[in-house]
């Protein structure tokens, strides 16, 4: 029997619906459940053919468990090795190399020194930084956000240089991005599952959280195709099985705003019934596909084009 496990925290509606949907399909030799861990021993298999990870970004113990499971042949969704290495600034840098429009973005050293460092630890960092060059490049208004964060935590909208200095002083040891504001006419949140299934959802980030999927714009067929191509390209290069990409339309151009969401919101109350049903059904089918293809003792992870091309010394484009 091949088991599909869902690793999750306090989230309930999506994991429970996903387990129920997989089991309702009654695929011979496949079953699904919430992951159960009673011990983790080095080099011992987890007992799961597939694990869908919804929580290891917050629990280092789970990330270690998943890496061990992957080494023993579990197909982990998403690849825990890549997820450990990935962050938002790298993704923006990669996008500039593969032809995906992104906002002008710079990375900033933390306002306060990290623990166990002194000023001497930063002897290669110019002081002061070229703040004029940074501000001229990004412009204002701008957004400041953690380079490896998520969930809209510690995100600031900045209207001026003085506003930047005031807000940056609040960020303590966080490493932040300073990013151009894209004043958009339309905004979309796009699910990508299995590197091939895309659902493009009108989204209004300026609304209260529970109303963000209520938007009054509809993309043309041409825009849909354009956005789907961007979403697929991003996920093929990053290698995520399960991710969302947020696209803001400015002057007819879709800009990728946020596309490092390997455990994206899938709660019924926030995404709405239609989107929820699509995510559950598509995730169930993909998890079953991965379980049936999984081979014991082999690497069953998904690796992105960036890693594959880099290791083969093939140009990105």
Automatic annotation (TrEMBL):
Cited SUPFAM superfamilies: Glutathione synthetase ATP-binding domain-like
Keywords: ATP-binding, Ligase, Nucleotide-binding
Molecular functions (GO terms): ligase activity
Domain of life: Bacteria
InterPro entries: ATP-grasp (IPR011761)
Domain (ATP-grasp): residue spans on this chain: 92-293
Keyword Nucleotide-binding: yes
PANTHER family on file: BETA-CITRYLGLUTAMATE SYNTHASE B-RELATED, RIBOSOMAL PROTEIN S6 MODIFICATION PROTEIN
Name the UniProt record assigns to this protein: RimK family alpha-L-glutamate ligase
